[in-house]
């Protein structure tokens, strides 16, 4: 796909994620998007790479997206994460790394507490 913004002299191209429709015959109908989407700004060379996570067995990753915006030298400028059906966050890489570390520590504390019970 291509989008040209003549007023701003910019052109974007992108790929679409894989789309899977579940329960077409029986059950509640729902759509899952998964795979990698690459959005390129041909005027600046910036690129956004988004990874739409597959649902998984228990649905924990349903609608989750993670990715980054990088310049033409592949330096990460921003990290994008969230759920495409609810809210996407765009933060600098250092903030995202701190968030992921704190999230991991929280999971480790939970597993230690469960192990003691």
Secondary-structure blueprint:
Blueprint (H helix, E strand, L loop, with lengths): L1 E4 L4 E5 L3 E5 L7 E12 L5 E6 L11 E7 L5 E8 L3 E5 L1 H24 L1
Antiparallel strand pairs: 1-2, 2-4, 3-4, 4-5, 5-6, 6-7, 7-8
Q: Briefly, what is this?
A:
This protein is an alpha+beta fold and 117 residues long.
- From the spread of the alpha carbons, the general shape counts as flat
Could you spell the SSE succession in H and E letters? Answer: EEEEEEEEH
Model regions low in confidence, pLDDT < 50 over at least 5 residues: 111-116
Q: Roughly how much helix do the residues carry, as a percent range?
A: 10-25%
Helix/strand structural class: alpha+beta
Largest sheet geometry? 8 strands, antiparallel
Q: State the helix count.
A: 1
Taking the alpha carbons of the first and last residues, their distance comes to: 54 Å
Relative strand content:
35-45%
Radius of gyration over all CA atoms, rounded? 18 Å
Total beta strand runs: 8
Average per-residue pLDDT, rounded, comes to: 88
